[in-house]
Each structure stands twice: as structure tokens, then as C-alpha cells.
Amino acid sequence: MSLRDSLFNWDGMANSLFGPLDPAPNAGYDDPPARKGFFTDTSICIGCKACEVACKEWNDVPENVFAMLGTSYDNSHSLNANQWRHVAFIEKPAKATPPVDLGMPTLGAAPNDVPEEEKPDFQWLMSSDVCKHCTHAACLDVCPTGSLFRSEFGTVVVQDDICNGCGYCVAACPYGVIDRRRGPDGDPSVGIAQKCTLCYDRLTDGQRPACAQACPTESILFGDVEELRRTANDRVARLHEQGVMDARLYGNDPDDGVGGTGAFFLLLDEPEVYGLPPDPVVTTKDLPTMYRRAGAAALALLAGAAVSFVGRRP
Amino acid sequence: MTGPEQRTDTDRATDAPQQSGARHRGSPARDSIVPEADFESYYGRPIVKPAPWEHDIAYYMFTGGVAAGSAILGAGADLTERPGLRRTSRLGSAVALVLSMFFLIKDLGKPSRFLNMLRVAKPTSPMSVGTWLLSLHGPFSALASAAEVAGLLPSRWQRGPIGLALRLGRPAGIAAAVTAPPVAAYTAVLLSDTATPAWHSAHEELPFVFCGSAAAASGGLGLIGAPLGESGPARAFAIGGAVVDLVAEHRMEQSMGISAETLHQGSAGRWMQASKGLMVLGATGALLGRRSRAVSIASGAALMAGSLCTRIGVFEAGIASANDPKYVVVPQRERVARGEAVRHSG
């Protein structure tokens, strides 16, 4: 694309700003490897935080700004510059639906012999969250220094030696993933934007990311995005067969507002229950409109000034 | 107050996903007929992150607006032989631009970080576009104000480089005026091109609010500095700008949806209230007080203050909208419920 095209041909760019595409070839890689990503199946997450710890150990991510929050078992708070994997703990009232006796013959202990008063009146949902590595990554698009880049694996990576710390990516991310590092004192990258790199260094070495490697239940699967999407669809179908009708996929649809994410999830409730936006849209989808409106306003300013001078003599 | 340790697990389990009710602080919505938004969230924690910016960014947008509007006024005054207005506008533009750069660099941390942004040119990044716009506009504005200073020197000094600056004053001033409008408008795109609910949902009207605000502030500066006989265009520009600011802001609130609430609540609400009051007061004063130097100066000051309040109010409303998950979840849920889930249609 010539400079003239990239500056003025917004229709030509529209597909780069919204819609399904393979990000690595779109970013200019010739013959890149297959797009890599995560499929996080929260139905088998046990909240052990092995992923959080493995990520911190491998990537040398310093301690979080630690606070006892008093709302849940989750004290690591949120995804941020010091927390590239974050396990959410959701305490919910147990489903009120009583078990239905189908009158079926049983083998061994009957499944429902726990007395009613001993059953917990709440249920746990646990989910390990991570940067989504969006197809249309707002953080990447708005970065004014080129510090954020698209890797050959289709992932989004920050180069902390180039980052300005301007914080624009922080406000642009529709998932609230990326943030500027707040501490500890003396860390050279305090004030610099940080987030999950999908273990870029391990990927170039043919290894799995640290969190996926450490997950004991294989709740975090790493691989080719295409293949992971098939696995995810199979898993949802199986859960639906087993009667878990709340199971749904989140972020797997290449036609959604961010063009599908490289890291997607199987959830057992609405996304907002997990602290995820229900239907996020990449902000740059509206960028052509924004520039057009700003252009109109700028012309109006100039015209207004001209009119102010017309017909007046000092 | 009941501490968390005194509550049972069941209490927490019951109220944890329903956080909306408790998060309304003194909002006018409480008395209105609009029902309280009902939504689920993760312990009420924010979903998107607020921009990690201080008020510096609001000051940066204000001074940038003054610089841009004054550059245009300065060129107009130069072409129509209004030396008083020209001097005020050119010098005001240069001073505002320097202040603007100061606030930007203060927010970034050190000057080299501004230069670091010139390593790429990215049309998808309004901040990159803005950096290049400032780099294009800045030298012309500086040259025009240098000519203004040169004109104040004794005539025997107006030779060599000083004389050259004097001769280049007019073309530089015109170039500064032509490059100025994008400087005033791009800051609206800068805010809108984020996931911050109040800023993004305002993207249609915010450029007009900011350009109107820039005209009001720079016209106000003209009213303060220029003699009465020359201040006519500045007066018209300021009044027009204030009207555009007020009308566009009103339309913006209509189109923003639920996040318009943040423009009425808390400190953002107070800044916006002050902004409206000062704009109306300043515009009225500018309209009626054209024979009084004192009234003109007071009106100009009110318009400048009103413009500053607009920037701070919009800035704070955005931060507040990012901090409350309601403004992320509710509009998206409502859109999906209307059957308008965002999907690429090929």
C-alpha cells in the first residue's frame, strides 16, 4: 500500500480496521507460521493460580500492588502490567432448580444421596483471564511509537525499550488488559505499558507459553487458533449434551467486534459476570468516521474565522 | 458500616454479581423516571481501564485550542491590518503552544519521549497524527511570533536574520493558520479513539465541541488583548465559538446514551456546569459590552475559563465512565438485546 493510499484511502483500510482477516499476513509477514493462541476452558479451571505463578516466574513480572480486597478470594484484582494472567473467582448463589428424579436404575451410590442441608448454597465459577491478542488490536493501532507490534504468530507484543509510557493503549483496550507498570520502585519498566506476550520468547523456541505448560487440568490450551476453535466447538457441544446449557464460547467468532480474538474462552455464565465486556467493538472501527467529523469541524473553524473578518473594517 | 468480615458467604454470594444499585452517587437519575440500570458485574470492578492521564492532558487540549484559534485570528488580523489583534493572537498562539508542549511532555515524563513519537507516522494513531500536526504547525507559529517580536525592536536592528524573520512573518502566519484547524480538532479524535465509554460514544460531536471551545477561548484572548476598535472579528469568533460549543455539547449528550450521565455527576458535572455558565456569561458580555474595554476583557476571560472547564469536564467524565462497569456493560447489552450485535457483514 502506498503512502497516499494509506493516508487517504479509508475504504481500502476499512478491512484492516474491522472484519475477519489473518493478522500476521495483514501486518506484512510473508509466509508466517499458523496463528497461535489460547483456548481457556473455564469449565475445568480449578482456580489453582499455577498459570499466574508460572507467568510471573517465566516473564519476571514483579509483584502486584497487593491489597486484600475483601470481596472475594481474588486478591490479584485484574489484568494489568504486573498481572498478565489473572484468575477470577466468582461466588454465585447455587442454581435453585431441584434435581429431577428420572426413576432410572442406578449402579453404586445414588448421585443424590447428599442431604439437602449439606449441599453448598453457592457455586464457584473460576476463570483464568489473559490478553485476548485481538485480530483488530486497538492497543496496537493507537500506539504512537510503534512500540507495540504484531508478531509472526499473529500475537500482539510490547517492546518495553521503545514504549513511551503515553498510556494511550491503556485507554484503547476494550478488555482493560494493558496497563502501565506501577511498581515496585526501582523496576526499570515502571511507567511502561506491559501485558501478556503469549510468551513470544518461548514461541520462537518452539515451546508452549508458561501458563499453558503449568496448567494442571489443561484448562489453558495453546495451539493453532483454527484448531483451537474446532476443539472449543466440540467441547461446547459435549457440555450441551451433558446438560450444561450455560456453556458458551467467548471471543471465538471472527465476525465479532474485534475480528475474533487469538485467546478465547469457554464460559459458564454471561461474560460480564467474569468482568469481561459482553460485546466489545474495536474503537478504530469508527476511526474513519472520527477523522471525517474532525475534518468537518476543522473546516468549520477556519470558515468561522473567515466569516468573522468578512465585512468588517477596522 | 458493616465490614466484609461480618458478612456471611451467603450475603456475598447474593450481592456479588449485582453491584449496580450501590454505585450511584448523588446522581440526578435517582429522581428521574429513567429506571436504574440493572446489570451484572464482577464485584463492581472496572472492565475497561481509565486512561492513566492527569489533568495535564486537559490543559494540553485547552492550550492547544487557544494556540490553534489564535494562529487563525493572527493571520486574519495581519491580512486586514489590525496590528493590535495580530500581536495578541500571534504572541498568544506561541505562548499557548509552548505551554501545550510543556503539559504534553510533563505527562510523558521527559522531552525525548516526544521525539520518540516521531520515529513512526501512523494514521491509525491519533496521537501520532497529532504529534506530526504539532510538528508541522509549531515552526510556522514560532516564526510568525518571531516576526511579531522583531517588529517591536528598534528599526535599526531590523536587518539580517531579524529582517528576514519580519519579511517571513506574513507567509509563516498564513501557513500557521492553515495548519491550525487540525491541531484544534484532532484532540477530539484522540479522546474518542479509545474504549472509554463517555469519550467513544461522543465521537460524532466532540470535534465540534472542541473546535467551538477553541474559537471561544482564542476569541476571548483577542478580546482581552486587542484594542476595542480592532476586536470585532475576535468578538464574532468568540461568540460563534461559544454558541457552537453549547449547541454541539447539547447534541452530544443526546447521542451518547447512558454515558452522558457522567457529564452531570460528581466533579465532571461541576466542571461542565461551570463551563456552560461561563460560556453563556462570556458570550453575552462579548455581545453587549462592545463599547467597554473592561466588559470585553471580563467576557474574554470568562470564555477562556469556560473553554478550560469544558476540557476538564469532558476529561473527567471519561475517567468516571471507565471506572464504572455499568457504562461498558449496559450499552453493549442493550445493543445485543436490540439485535444489533456488532458483526462483520462481509
From TrEMBL, chain A:
<feature type="domain" description="4Fe-4S ferredoxin-type">
    <location>
        <begin position="36"/>
        <end position="64"/>
    </location>
</feature>
<feature type="domain" description="4Fe-4S ferredoxin-type">
    <location>
        <begin position="122"/>
        <end position="153"/>
    </location>
</feature>
<protein>
    <submittedName>
        <fullName>Formate dehydrogenase iron-sulfur subunit</fullName>
    </submittedName>
</protein>
<dbReference type="GO" id="GO:0030313">
    <property type="term" value="C:cell envelope"/>
</dbReference>
<dbReference type="InterPro" id="IPR051555">
    <property type="entry name" value="FDH_Electron_Transfer_Unit"/>
</dbReference>
<keyword id="KW-0812">Transmembrane</keyword>
<keyword id="KW-0677">Repeat</keyword>
<keyword id="KW-0411">Iron-sulfur</keyword>
<keyword id="KW-0004">4Fe-4S</keyword>
<dbReference type="InterPro" id="IPR017896">
    <property type="entry name" value="4Fe4S_Fe-S-bd"/>
</dbReference>
<feature type="domain" description="4Fe-4S ferredoxin-type">
    <location>
        <begin position="154"/>
        <end position="183"/>
    </location>
</feature>
<keyword id="KW-1133">Transmembrane helix</keyword>
<dbReference type="GO" id="GO:0051539">
    <property type="term" value="F:4 iron, 4 sulfur cluster binding"/>
</dbReference>
<keyword id="KW-0408">Iron</keyword>
<dbReference type="InterPro" id="IPR017900">
    <property type="entry name" value="4Fe4S_Fe_S_CS"/>
</dbReference>
<keyword id="KW-0472">Membrane</keyword>
<feature type="transmembrane region" description="Helical">
    <location>
        <begin position="290"/>
        <end position="311"/>
    </location>
</feature>
<dbReference type="Pfam" id="PF13247">
    <property type="entry name" value="Fer4_11"/>
</dbReference>
<dbReference type="GO" id="GO:0046872">
    <property type="term" value="F:metal ion binding"/>
</dbReference>
<keyword id="KW-0479">Metal-binding</keyword>
UniProtKB/TrEMBL annotation, chain B:
<dbReference type="Pfam" id="PF03916">
    <property type="entry name" value="NrfD"/>
</dbReference>
<protein>
    <submittedName>
        <fullName>Formate-dependent nitrite reductase membrane component NrfD</fullName>
    </submittedName>
</protein>
<dbReference type="GO" id="GO:0005886">
    <property type="term" value="C:plasma membrane"/>
</dbReference>
<feature type="compositionally biased region" description="Basic and acidic residues">
    <location>
        <begin position="1"/>
        <end position="14"/>
    </location>
</feature>
<keyword id="KW-0812">Transmembrane</keyword>
<keyword id="KW-0472">Membrane</keyword>
<feature type="region of interest" description="Disordered">
    <location>
        <begin position="1"/>
        <end position="31"/>
    </location>
</feature>
<keyword id="KW-1133">Transmembrane helix</keyword>
<dbReference type="InterPro" id="IPR005614">
    <property type="entry name" value="NrfD-like"/>
</dbReference>
<keyword id="KW-1003">Cell membrane</keyword>
<feature type="transmembrane region" description="Helical">
    <location>
        <begin position="91"/>
        <end position="109"/>
    </location>
</feature>
<feature type="transmembrane region" description="Helical">
    <location>
        <begin position="57"/>
        <end position="79"/>
    </location>
</feature>
<dbReference type="InterPro" id="IPR052049">
    <property type="entry name" value="Electron_transfer_protein"/>
</dbReference>
<comment type="similarity">
    <text>Belongs to the NrfD family.</text>
</comment>
